[in-house]
Predict the 3D structure of the following.
Amino acid sequence: MLVSDFNFDLPEELIAQEPLADRAASRMLCLNRTAGTYQDGLFANLPELLRPEDLLVFNNTRVFPARLYGHRAAGEGKIEVLLTRQISSEPNEWECLVRPGKKVRVGERLYFGEGLEAAVIARADFGERRIRFLPGPDFFEQIERLGHVPLPPYIVRAAQNRDQNRDQNKARVEDRERYQTVYARERGSVAAPTAGLHFTPQILEAIRARGTQTAELTLHVGLGTFQPIRADRVEDVKLHHEHYSISEEAADAINHARREHRRIVAVGTTTVRTLEYAALSSSEIRSGSGEADIFIYPGYKFRIVDAMLTNFHLPQSSLLILVCAFAGRKNVLNAYRHAVESKYRFYSYGDCMVVE
């Protein structure tokens, strides 16, 4: 199976560069994976599509401002660091992407201001570096002040002036709130679980008023969201590890719903991956935490998820391949072609699709 089998044509103007003023105003394409049919709709109508007996599962991870700008030793030039995964807190070590990466050597010091410094201690997989921050004031307080929201690379906004770094200016103050779900709690993601960006407190209230139960888990979205697939064959794809945790309360709710043959509806591909990874070695979901690296592609037998809400994904991406595994490649690509023809908004700040 080739990665190129999961390609589609997408006009650049359909890539959403800004969020809608109203989170819940997005369009929603409804795909019936059994019949292969689809219907245009609105996200605001999601509560009516859910059944009272459904269990809706959210990823409550919280994005932190993981993009840092600084410089190397005096006179060595500016750098950009994207923190991707915390390896340990004592000492404070992270895997990260560094740009320009080729010039940054093991043993170098990186300086970000306000006394925030790090040493490059090793090279890591996927072109990353491992860095160790020097002891100092509260680390995450400094990150909140100095860091920038790590918007995906396909969100391209004009710099305010030609002397400013474009990447540094594409994340605005308002992105700190809009590139975050309203139920985000557990800090640790470098990218938002974007299917959740459509929810508002009013929509959540309407869902619960209908009788639909909800549960939360955590998967901290990592570097895999940003990086393209580098393999030609789907079977050769390897994904980054991402930290997840499932509470005892959530595990009980999911297992109880399965025993009663009620639908489990996952909000986003991150939730899908977490649920399916947690069920790989057991017939039930177990509470706990760990590192998930599951890659789901056509032929995979879903153990937990019965329906999903998801945004529209990049061509030839692991997330699109996951959705194709769930609904069928032909069905999904047909739905995507319709979405393009109907001028749906794509990617993180775009519209969504519910698959049943």
The first strand starts at residue 27 and ends at 32. The longest helix spans residues 329-341. The chain is about 20% helix and 25% strand. The domain at 3-63+176-355 is CATH 3.40.1780.10 (QueA-like).
